[in-house]
Amino acid sequence: MADDKSGRDKQAHDEERRQREREIAAELERGDEAEPEVDASELAYFETELEPVAFPATGAEIVSTVGDREIESALGTHAIAELLPDAEVETFDSPADVGARIRRPTVAMAMKRVVEAADDFPDAELGTSQRDAYERTFRELAAIDVVDEDEGIRVVADWIVERIRDTGKIPGSRDVRRRAAKFCRANGYEVRNDEWLGI
């Protein structure tokens, strides 16, 4: 590889991609979450396709640029437009942030619905910590083996969207966790008080 600007840029970019792959692998080794549904190499390759996007970027900007790009997951093939909100209300700071969102398509699709519902109401503000809490709740539901086909994620996402449409406000993260726990208990899954959903 030539020692010029483009060669150095390529080396730096390749090193960033390898670092992201190592971080994902390290997270999986810790065992504190279920395995991501999108392969790390697929995710790293997708992140390189985000180079035309100027970050920070809104979901709408990313969807308009690469929305038709498809990504393979353990559950099938998904267009990016199915996974990211076509909305101005959510901003991604880097390609890695986009990758973190789409690595679990079932969670990404639920978050897309919630963010787009919030975008319809100017007074419904979805803060970063609240968004993170919603996403963690969806990940916890995805990790429950006894709940088939991520039905809990759909039920809780439906509930959040209904609440936003009915009240014009975003439900609190504790309310969302309570609703998720109620679904789990109704389906025979015990939720302990020391768990995320144990509210």
Q: How would you concisely characterize the structure shown here?
A:
With 199 residues, the protein is mainly alpha-helical. It is built from nine helices and four strands, in the order ααβαββαβααααα.
Q: Helix count?
A: 9
Order of helices and strands: HHEHEEHEHHHHH
**What fraction of the residues are assigned to beta strands by DSSP?**
5-15%
Given the helix and strand composition, which structural class is it?
mainly alpha
List the helices and strands and how they pair.
Elements: H1 5-30, H2 40-48, E1 57-58, H3 59-66, E2 70-73, E3 76-79, H4 80-83, E4 91-92, H5 95-102, H6 105-119, H7 128-143, H8 151-167, H9 173-186
Q: Would you write up a description of this structure?
A:
The structure is a single chain. Helix content is 59%, strand content 6%. With 199 residues, the chain is mostly helical. Strands 1-4 form a two-stranded antiparallel sheet. The chain has a two-stranded antiparallel sheet with strand order 2-3. Helix 7 (128-143) packs parallel to helix 9 (173-186). Residues 28-33 have low confidence and may be disordered.
